[in-house]
Design a protein that fits this description.
Layout lengths: L21 E2 L5 E3 L5 E2 L6 E2 L6 E5 L13 E2 L5 E8 L5 E10 L11 E4 L4 E2 L10 E6 L5 E2 L7 E2 L5 E8 L5 E11 L5 E2 L2 E2 L12 E2 L8 E5 L5 E6 L8 E2 L2 E2 L3 E8 L6 E8 L2
Amino acid sequence: MKKLLIYFLLVIGCVNSYAQLSCNAGADRTICPGTTTTIGGSPTISGGLSPFTITWAPATGLSSATVANPVVTITGSVTYTLTVKDSRDSIDTDVITVGVYPLITISAGADTTINSGQVITLSGSPFDSLYSYSWTTIGNSGINYSSTFNPDVSPTDTSDFILTITDNYGCKYSDTVRVNVIPSSDLYFYNSITPNGDGENEVWVIKNLDKYPKNKLEIFNRYGQQIYSVHGYKNDWNGKYLGQDLPGGTYFYILDTNTDKGKYKGTITIFR
């Protein structure tokens, strides 16, 4: 009896498996005017079979319309469509909208000229209670109330003052004003102090007093009682008498320059 031998040939084939192509344009966002943003996810492409063909449309404001994460520079809202195709001609798309917050126009004011020692109030605009303000300068010029839109300054030399406004969206804008200074020996008296510990206007200042080192200063209360006296005043009186805070109110001063400029009389008010 013949035996029938049957052979089975088992052929195991390898079938390549790929995850489905997916692309991610990133999350919608709104940017500040004059700034940039980078779009595309992290990663922008997943699955599929490389190489990939990337297309962003429109190309408006893009550093490149054919890269995964282009940089966007725009002045108004744009909706971008991302299209990705892999080597098997699989295609996926995604959409992102990039908006721009409203632009505000700011001003630090017009350039101006003052005499050395003169105090001037700067005026920034626009004013909005939702905005924050910051004034800075290069050099040693002091700024009183630097976090307001209208600070007081008294530079000794020509100086530039920079206003930075942060709006309610967190966007920052800057402008600069120049204060030109003409040398002068005239005395300028601050008319008030607010010695409350906030670092602003804590002591009584007489501008250009350093040009009169032999000066004598006397301060009196409304009853004529002398509550302060010093030779060679150094702009350091902080509203105290015998180490104690004086009450808020108006006080009277006599400043003798001990020069041909003679004496100056006036009032100084303490605010508490």
